[in-house]
């Protein structure tokens, strides 16, 4: 029975990982009230309450790791590339 439960748990972890993604783009809009970030491709991503929203500005290049939860793209990690080294 333990093997069956372990296999079911492993299958759940694998299926959850299938919904993870990563994207890169320019910030189009930051909605502080809704805690969302919209990229230049039109897709929106839900931010957590601990995110420093003042550090995110339209036009900034950003890399986002996210999970799809309840139909929403929820940010799990983000990175702002060093814009000076890109120039």
Question: What does this entry show, briefly?
Answer:
The chain is of the alpha+beta class. 23% of the residues lie in helices and 41% in strands. It has a single domain (20-86), classed as Copper binding periplasmic protein CusF (OB fold (Dihydrolipoamide Acetyltransferase, E2P)), CATH 2.40.50.
Span between termini:
59 Å
* CATH homologous superfamily descriptor: Copper binding periplasmic protein CusF
Number of extended strands: 5
CATH topology: OB fold (Dihydrolipoamide Acetyltransferase, E2P)
Mean pLDDT: 80
Q: Which class best fits the helix and strand makeup?
A: alpha+beta
Order of neighbouring strands in the sheet with most strands: 3-2-1-4-5
**Which range best describes the helical content: under 10%, 10-25%, 25-40%, 40-55%, 55-70% or over 70%?**
10-25%
Low-confidence stretches: 1-10, 14-18
Bin the strand percentage. 35-45%
- Count of helix runs: 2
List SSEs in N-to-C order: HEEEEEH
The biggest beta sheet is recorded as: 5 strands, antiparallel
Q: Please tell me the total number of domains.
A: 1
Q: What is the CATH class designation?
A: Mainly Beta
The CATH architecture designation is: Beta Barrel
The dominant shape is: globular
Give an account of the 3D structure.
The radius of gyration is 16 Å and the shape is globular. The protein is built from 2 helices and 5 strands, in the order αβββββα. The chain has a single domain (20-86), classed as OB fold (Dihydrolipoamide Acetyltransferase, E2P), CATH 2.40.50. The chain has helices spanning 2-17, 83-86; strands at 20-31, 36-39, 44-46, 61-69, 72-79. It is of the alpha+beta class. The chain has a 5-stranded antiparallel β-sheet, with no helix packed on it.
């Amino acid at each position: 029975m333990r093997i069956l439960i372990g296999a079911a748990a492993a299958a759940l972890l694998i299926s959850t990982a299938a919904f993870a993604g990563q994207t890169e783009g320019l910030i189009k809009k930051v909605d502080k009230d809704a805690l969302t970030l919209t990229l230049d491709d039109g897709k929106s991503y839900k931010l957590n309450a601990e995110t420093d929203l003042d550090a995110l500005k339209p036009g900034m290049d950003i890399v986002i790791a996210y999970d799809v939860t309840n139909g929403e793209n929820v940010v799990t990690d983000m990175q702002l590339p060093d814009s000076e080294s890109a120039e």
